[in-house]
Design brief:
globular
């Protein structure tokens, strides 16, 4: 299966919410994904962990393929794995629309991005909280998305690291100065209470796992997140 074309509604929206299924109820994953789609999500964030790059193991290509049958939203696949090049084809064939690799794991980052694009997906690059922006600056123009981690990857439900806000601001300035059009995504510890701060810093895509799936009403939570984004985005 190849990636489906991106849903036009999703592409139109400048600020996007990408619920991370890591916090969903896995006994009813399909229903959970349908519920966040109905509640107004723009992407579905899929966290892939290998037990080497991060101290946890999650899901692989069969889950990505299965998710495609229950949602029309783009699948935003976040690879937290060593040797990502070995798995690009499998995830894109499974239907990943955006495929993000970590700069700490991709030895030849530019080559990896080109490979992702050649196979028809959008190329994302991600940085751990302690990794400086200069690691991605030379290849930013080739990326479709830059994912700034606001927690050390591996688990959902961790606390947002405030120092990352300045990093998002710097990345935004870097991108705007050069006139690039890639999206800035932030992942880790995002909730209604801090999403405005991150929007103000210049993020475009907001990943939230426990901040959405551990709340009783997904629609209400996503609506409140959007209100916060709108309130703070240009301040
Ligand atoms: C962390 C993952 C995140 C995580 C987000 O390694 O990449 O996507 O699931 O979960 P919350 O929003 O609960 O921090
Ligand atoms: Zn993630």
């Amino acid at each position: 299966m190849k990636p489906k074309p991106m849903n036009p509604r999703t592409l139109e929206r400048a600020k996007k919410i990408s619920p991370s299924i890591l916090s969903a109820d896995f006994t009813q994953l399909g229903e959970e994904v349908k519920a966040v789609e109905k509640a107004g999500a723009d992407y579905i964030h899929v966290d892939v962990m290998d037990g080497h790059f991060v101290p946890n193991i999650t899901v692989g290509p069969p889950i990505v393929e299965a998710l495609h049958t229950v949602t029309s939203l783009p699948l935003d696949v976040h690879l937290m794995i060593q040797n990502p090049d070995d798995f690009l084809e499998a995830f894109i064939e499974a239907g990943a629309n955006i495929l993000t690799v970590h700069v700490e794991a991709a030895v030849h980052l530019h080559r990896t991005m080109m490979e992702i694009k050649k196979r028809g997906a959008r190329a994302g690059i991600s940085l751990n909280p302690a990794t400086p922006l200069c690691f991605i600056e030379p290849v930013l123009e080739y990326a479709d998305l830059a994912l700034v981690m606001a927690v050390n990857p591996g688990f959902s439900g961790q606390e947002f690291i405030p120092a990352v806000v300045a990093k998002i601001e710097q990345l935004r300035q870097m991108i705007d100065k050069k006139g690039f059009s890639l999206e800035v995504e932030v992942d880790g510890g995002i909730k209604i209470e801090n999403i405005g701060l991150v929007a103000k810093a210049g993020a475009d895509v907001f990943v939230s796992g426990s901040g959405i799936f551990k709340t009783p009403n997904y629609q209400k939570t996503i609506a409140e997140m959007r209100q916060q984004i709108e309130k703070y985005k240009n301040k």
